[in-house]
Amino acid sequence: MLFRKRVFSDEPLLLRPRTPNKFSILHVLAVIAAVFLVGALGGGFIPDRSHISAAALHPAFWLVDSTWRVVAIFIVLAFAARVCQGGIDGVGMKSGGAIGRGILIGLGSIAVTWPLVFVGDGISVVVEKVLWHRIAPQNSLLKAVRHHPSPQVLALMAFSLCILAPLSEELFFRGLVQSYLVQVLAKLRSRFVGPRPAAGAGTKPLRVAISPADRWGGIFMSSLFFALAHGEPSAFVALFMLGLALGYVYERTGNLWTDMTMHSVFNGVSFFATLALQSRR
Asked: Domain residue spans in the chain?
């Protein structure tokens, strides 16, 4: 019990744990539907759709990719402005000095997280070799770098992977999905496990408290969705561990700039390391 109190206590780690947001399943489905609609409309402009690494050599691919990410960003922020406590600040898009603090915390956090991601990547390699007798393939988008894309494509790729992807994915998976799951788990626990208020005239429903178990459940489930959504089986364990770190940091700090910094550094290092290795060949 002492450990659980320390992990998600009201004592600040660097900032106070976030205040749960009251999203509904309709908010989640609306974002997903809008993203799929934009993707479907833009799919006709992408050549070589049968192979994603070939399609990624064309500017149209990254323009469509950027468009649906921007759509997701605006929709989540619109919902947050209406339903979160404090508007978009409530979902973690804080202003003022919190931006700088979030970036600094994110840089420190990703340095601690990186060994976990490497362990996950190593597990994926071992599983691939033992079960399927093959080496885990490289990320399908980063494979496009092997084919020497144009400077325009590289610029669009870097902007999407290092800026838009961290912003859109953290708003969606942490700000929206994780918030929703923590809320749902808290309600389920209070209904089936927690004490019920005594019946009587004038009795008001008690506010559902968020427990450490609810937070860990939301972190675990959103990390699972985060890893599955990338569609990269060979990177599933590494992405899942990255998601756990991002989810934990979000619950502890309530500052999405921290998560976006971690995510951006992770994607940026992966992208530029691939580019540097390819340039030597």
From this structure: 21-189+210-279
